[in-house]
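Weekly structure sync - notes
Attendees: PM, LS, DV (DV joined late)
Agenda: review two folding runs queued last week.

Item 1: First target. Sequence and structure tokens pasted below for the record.
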Amino acid sequence: MAEAEGVNQGNSAQVSIIIPTYNESRNIIGILKSIGENLPKNITAEAIVVDDNSPDLTGKIVEDYLKNVKKIAGYTMDIIHRTSKNGLSSAILSGIQRAKGDLIVVMDSDFSHPPHVIPKMLESLKKYQCDMVVASRYINGGKINGWTLKRKFMSKIATLIATKGLGVKTKDPMSGFFVFKKNILKGINFDAIGYKILLEILVKKSGIAVKEIPYTFENRNIGSSKLDSSTVTDYFKSVWKLYKFGKSKEPEERRNSVRFISKASRFYTVGLSGFGVNYLISLLFAGGISDLWYLHANLIGIGASITTNFLLNKTWTFGDRDFSKKRTLKQYGKFVTFSSLGALVQLGMVFYLVDSQNLSYPISLVLAVLTAAFGNYVFNKKYTFKEKVWG
């Protein structure tokens, strides 16, 4: 096994590495071997595979492997068989419950999380005396290989929602590759919705010391991605629950300027998420689940984004829980009206600045978008959701 540079050989550590799997038969044995080859010699470690009854028999492959594998000093392996596919977060929690180690490593089984980074994470945990180390794609030195532009865009939107909407300081709160001290989980009541348990820990234990180190995320070469529409839906459910959790823990902000800026930030974050919804729905109907003409598909995307923007702004930005039919339809009508007016303002302003003032199109577009978005926020705040503009 490899030795991590700078690790004190006089001190041993007990580490549990949790590896959730679903249809990873072609990757799992390779990842288990690679982990063993990359662990520092002074580490006593266990790898725990948590399999959600994979149709490709991932769990049985691991079980057969464990019966015949030659034991490696300081490194043991185990398998948890679950009866159904209950989600990534709950699988990780099952592994943690079985874990013997005081330090927990969470990682994927498809080599997108390189095992050679584990010693660096463990060394950083000791060096910086922190509670958690996150392998980050989004700090200096981190990068992603093999993702499409669409996948990168979706990841950025999800990260933006987490950092701006939930107030998380970590640059890559959507990372699935991290190590932490097991004792920080005391007192956390997990919802275990979706696929990013790291985000739930960061929100519910906001006082812990976190260090990020860069790594290169490698897109899987074997098997298919688990990202689908249900994953996206679960993410938004998780964000909503975490937002309500954070809201219940924070005293109400009394400064009008802070409240104005805070709600404006949420409004603009929702707007960005709406752009993502528009993009994805348009693609879905123009070649995905149907083969509509691209303009018709785009109209469906626009309608979907306006609707999701309205619902998110009603419940999240402005905290309105009254969904009586008459009230909601009236608000929705106003929201659509102001959104349409904002689009007209944007088009008119771009035309004026480019055609009459000879400004470049990129600069004109930025000014127009900012003006229209600010107008949308103010008018919806005052007339749709009946709040004072300043406050």
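Item 2: Second target, run right after the first with the same settings.
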Amino acid sequence: MILHQMYDSIQNIKTLRVKVSSVERLEENFSSANSEYKVQTRPRKLYFRNPDKKLEVLFNTELYGRKALVKPHVFPYFTISLDPTGNIMRKNQHYSINELGYTFIGNSIALTISKDKNGLNNFTYLGKANKNGYSCYFLQYENKNYAYIDYVVCEKETATSIAYKLNVNDYLLRHKNDLLNDFGYLKKGTTLKVPTLYCKKANLFIDDHLMVPISLSLYDDKGLFESYDFSNVQINKPFLEDEFNRDNKNYGF
């Protein structure tokens, strides 16, 4: 019931403002970041800011096409247009800006349930808990059958397209096959090791009012590989006309 309500709430999100603290395993080390972003879901528009790295990103296909405007407030300082799925924007990142927001999380959980033979039976409800100042339902997912199997690359497939096709974690697939910086087509017939599921274990805290995730931690066979904590969550609050325009006086493009 909780997961179904969460999925319905996510489907009804039209606008989102949120702050995120992330921890991601990059090879054998962990990288942490604090960022904030705004998302309009339909049509998709996004503004992202990482104050620690002094970085701003703006994505609005109506004004700027399929490229994202990226402004580093360090050398070389000027605004550049980059492919959100290209190697520059994806380097040392588990996800691209296309996955920011709750839609990707909700779809990944739904597909994990449908792919897992035991589905909901691998979820355990552990009661109510306070997380990041929110009253939450605490759920845990675990599948001890998580493993890696062989996959033969087909024509015009990338690591990302394979991950989407199989509903597995893109970064884990790349890391397992030494493809961390390979974002192009893979050689047809190549055999990859791919995980059978998106993760082996997950801890999920869902706000009991907003019914969206407040904290999400995912584990593979080695342990924690990524966690995300959300705060200052604002849903369906209207955006101003220039919210996704580079000329917005609050932006530095």
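Discussion on item 2: The chain has a mean pLDDT of 93.
Action: LS to circulate a short write-up before next sync.
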